Amino acid sequence: MGQVVALDALLLDRRVWRGQPAALPVATHPTGLAALDAALPSAGWPDAALTELLLPADGVGEVRLLLPTLARLTQARRDIVLVAPPYLPYPAGWRQAGVDFAHVHVIEASARDALWATEQCLRAGCASAVLCWPRQADDRALRRLQVASETGQALGFAFRDLRAARNPSPAALRIVVEGAPSQLRVLKCRGGLPPARPIPFPHAIH
Fold it and tell me: What are the residues whose beta carbons fall under 8 Å from the beta carbon of 28, sequence distance 6 or more?
């Protein structure tokens, strides 16, 4: 049997490598919701990547979740694009949240052309964030949006029906936005494991 050596002695003798704690990532795009940032590997929205927001119904707070990010980007004079939104944004509410409407662009497109328009806006590199509401998007179409986000170094956000959660997706981040109770469930986050518990989603976030 080998000789038993105390761990303290090994450490003092520098015969055991002592790892250093990994530094916490610096968020490039914080969400504005501290609990969500703390749960994500990137401490915010994944950079230059596609995020899916899966909804049981419209109006559960999905746009409100993005307003802090949209406000920060537009205040920095960076353009954002909304492709074929089902409802036009309410300017007074968005301005109250800090969004500069001079840098908000809305593109009208048919359901057939919306994915193509979204891909082109993401790929162009002139928009900091692109929001879309695809009615039908298969794995191939979502992969094109993910690649376009990487190419254009833009944040891509796709609002989709909750039923799409049953299908795999190339998106870097997938979040279910629930309205009753108001909470977020992270289904997938690139670079880490999704949190086991839902994240409370207050009516007002900063």
Answer: 42, 44, 47
CA dist list (Å): 114 to 75, 83, 149: 27, 6, 15
The answer to whether the CB of 133 falls within 8 A of the CB of 114 is yes
End-to-end CA distance of the chain: 61
Residue 81: CB atoms within 10 Å: 23
pLDDT in tens, 42-72: 999 999 999 999 999 999 999 999 999 999 9
Per the listing, tokens 């690139």 go with 190
Q: Can you give the chain as a three-state secondary structure string?
A: CCCCCCHHHHHHCCCCCCCCCCCCCCCCCCCCCHHHHHHCCCCCCCCCCEEEEEECCCCCCHHHHHHHHHHHHHHCCCCEEEECCCCCCCHHHHHHCCCCHHHEEEECCCHHHHHHHHHHHHHHCCCCEEEECCCCCCHHHHHHHHHHHHHHCCEEEEEEEHHHHHCCCCCCEEEEEEECCEEEEEEEECCECCCCCCEECCCCCC
The pTM is what?
A: 0.86
